[in-house]
Amino acid sequence: MALTAETESRLYRSLRVASGAAAHLVALGFPAAVAVLARPGSSLFSWHPLLMALAFSFLMTEALLIFSPETSLLRSFSRKVRVRAHWALQLLALLCALLGLGIITYNKHLNGKGHFVTWHGLTGLLAVLYAGGQCAGGVLLLYPKLMKNWTLAKLKLYHATSGLVGYLLGCASLMLGMCSLWFTTTVTGASWYLAMLCPLITSLVIMNQVSNAYLYRKRSQH
Fold this sequence. Notes:
- Its cofactor is heme b.
- GO terms for molecular function: metal ion binding; transmembrane ascorbate ferrireductase activity; transmembrane monodehydroascorbate reductase activity.
- It comes from Rhagologus leucostigma.
- By secondary structure, this protein is an all-alpha fold.
- The protein is 77% helix and 0% strand.
- The chain has a single domain (38-220), classed as Up-down Bundle (Four Helix Bundle (Hemerythrin (Met), subunit A)), CATH 1.20.120.1770.
- It has helices at 5-38, 47-65, 79-110, 119-142, 152-177, 181-186, 190-220.
- Helix 1 (5-38) runs antiparallel to helix 2 (47-65) and helix 3 runs antiparallel to helix 4 (119-142).
- The two termini are 33 Å apart.
């Protein structure tokens, strides 16, 4: 029997709610697991994986999920409140990422190791720099008059699209970090594959959210 349009809509909404809930759990669970593995404070390096996991798995994911119509933890609040929360979370994410980058750079200096000589290091550096640029670009949304030839709707669209690129860069950096010697010797077997799924799950949820927002905006223009 074919499903009615209303049933399909309810099913689709239920799947989005379930996937969003999974993203919230993963966003918090992954940094918690990294904290257990790294034991922050046991060494200078131990702070690097925790700070990067907090930045790109927890804070940045939650900053983007704030605008989800189904799974936002602040969906009952006004858009103005959600925008401010988004800003706060993104700035915290950037601070954590910068601190994590600074720590690993200094740790390599102390140990006489090369800087940014792996794909993980290069991608991580690019993700942090991109996040800084994305935060700076977000200022244009607060002061859209600075871009006289651009409408606010277009600025929002480009900010969301470029933000997705930056988020995927951060997730790619996390996944490459899980291929490092430290992680692969600490996490083995099925646990390693489950860990790799974490940034993949949140990436898929965020990509779906951004694409749906884009399609909604396109429909509203016609």
